Amino acid sequence: MLSSFVHWYLQALDTGGYALVVLLMAVESSIVPLPSEVVIPPAAYLAVTTGKMTLVGVALAGTVGSWIGASVMYLAARYLGRPLLVRFGAFIFLTETKLAAAERWTSSVGPYGVFAARLLPVIRHLIGIPVGLMRMHYGWFSLATLCGALVWSTVLCWIGVTAGQDAALLAGDMHRVTRWCVGIFVSLLVLYGLFVYRPMRRQ
């Protein structure tokens, strides 16, 4: 299914351009399980090879889309309230215990935690919920989200361009594919340990 999406996406980018990147990254920042890793890198690679977009434009489109999606999550949590989220949170595997832990973590790290969360899988999609429940100032939330999303989009642009220049990777060399996957996984694991696991253990 993922390969079918990527095939469609590569064709749709020819006409959709930046608007399509914004739309999909907004979806990615909601509860929909759409990885940003399949949105930004292909767009960055096409920007370099076709010249129809620019890397700066792709990174900015990804940033704006992430902010829009995250804002929807923030506003929904802020105005729907905790009881409704607790009641329906099971549908997105968000139990009351997890929600309480996320609220404690968010209260301890503030906007810096929102920034760090934009660099982490899964947490990136859901950070708007505890922040919205806590009624963090929307300006600070937006600033932290935009900064974190810009960093993440820039990293994904670099991955897309670098991977596109790796002939062995494009040819399906499994050793090279594994190396890339392991490298990305380890990097994300380190970020998770520093910004999420350690603060939550201290609490």
Q: Please, could you describe this protein's structure?
A:
The protein is 80% helix and 0% strand. It contains ten helices and no strands. The chain is mainly alpha-helical. About 4% of the residues have low confidence. It has one domain.
Descriptive key words:
10 helices, mainly alpha, 0% strand, 203 residues, 80% helix, elongated
Note the topology.
Blueprint: H1 2-28, H2 40-50, H3 55-80, H4 82-88, H5 96-117, H6 123-126, H7 128-133, H8 138-164, H9 167-170, H10 174-202
Span from first to last CA? 40 Å
Radius of gyration: 17 Å
**What percent of residues are in strands?**
under 5%
Number of domains: 1
Number of strands: 0
> Helix proportion of residues, in percent?
over 70%
Q: pLDDT below 50 for ≥5 consecutive residues: which ranges?
A: 167-175
Mean pLDDT: 76
Overall shape: elongated
Structural class: mainly alpha
Biggest sheet: strands, sense, closure? Answer: none
Count of helix runs: 10
Q: State the order of secondary-structure elements, H for helix, E for strand.
A: HHHHHHHHHH
Short characterization:
It contains 10 helices and no strands.
